[in-house]
Design a protein that fits this description.
Elements lengths: L5 E6 L5 H17 L5 E5 L7 H11 L3 E6 L6 H12 L6 E4 L7 H13 L10 E7 L5 H15 L5 E6 L7 H11 L3 E6 L6 H9 L5 E2 L7 H22 L2
Parallel strand pairs: 1-2, 1-3, 3-4, 5-6, 5-7, 7-8
Helix pairs in contact: 1-8, 4-8, 6-7
């Protein structure tokens, strides 16, 4: 029987040690959900092991099939250019398929709500609470459009209002969205960081939330995020095994 492909989780990396610690915690949760699946982690920058180092090691072990999964919430420059470029330089004996980015997904919206409830809100607060959906930001119009659409859809689940905001590259900033929700008359305002791990831009989001009533934690190793990782892996893995005759 053909063994299942290795799952290679590709994270951006950061000088902030909280970033790598959060990525590793998420990967541990993924492993716990799928015992027997080999899950490796590689970083594009700042942290080790690098993606090329992991790929070289897998090839040296005799691994053939790899599903490379970008640990990204939107499909922007890293998913479209950086990661494909790194994967093209992998050892020729490896058969690599790149999975889709994590978002959008109803599971990620559920994870956002989990973090808001952990920060002190309850489902009964939804109708009187405005939420700022605060992402890192991007110069890619596709990524910005996705964030705006998530905010529109999330609003229909019962919140007073939901507004997108961005820590860089795009507007509005978190603090501006907080003020807009106050002006709309929402009794309380919460900020939900749509980011996976702590770091420079999430800290900027937190500073922008100074006038909000509630600041949720980053998504991190939420169980819903781990489920999305495995969904993205399975979307690629099944065609791989079919092609191999498994």
């Amino acid at each position: 029987m053909t063994s299942r492909p290795v799952l290679l989780v590709i994270a951006h990396g950061s000088r902030d040690p909280r970033h790598a610690a959060t990525v590793h915690a998420l990967v541990r949760r993924v492993r716990a959900r799928r015992p027997g699946l080999r899950v490796e982690t590689g970083f594009l920058d700042f942290n080790i092991p690098s993606v090329p180092a992991v790929l070289e090691s897998l090839a040296a072990e005799g691994v053939r099939d790899v599903v490379a999964l970008p640990l990204l919430l939107t499909r922007a420059f890293h998913a479209k250019a950086d990661i494909p470029a790194v994967l093209r330089e992998a050892p020729a004996r490896l058969r690599i398929r790149q999975a889709e980015v994590l978002g959008p997904s109803p599971l990620l919206t559920a994870a956002l709500e989990r973090r808001l409830y952990e920060a002190g809100l309850t489902p009964a607060d939804k109708s009187s609470t405005g939420v700022v959906l605060a992402s890192a930001g991007s110069t890619d119009p596709e990524a910005i459009a996705v964030i705006a659409e998530i905010a529109r859809e999330w609003r229909h689940t019962g919140w007073c209002a939901v507004r997108p905001a961005f820590a860089s590259a795009s507007l509005p900033r978190t603090e501006d969205a907080v003020r807009e929700l106050r002006a709309l008359g929402c009794a309380r305002v919460a900020v939900a960081p749509y980011v996976l791990a702590p770091g420079f831009l999430p800290d900027r989001i937190a500073r922008g939330a100074a006038e909000a009533d509630v600041l949720a934690d980053v998504l991190g190793p939420a169980p819903e995020v781990a489920r999305v990782l495995l969904e993205r892996y399975d979307e690629v893995r099944v065609p791989v095994l079919t092609a191999l005759g498994a």
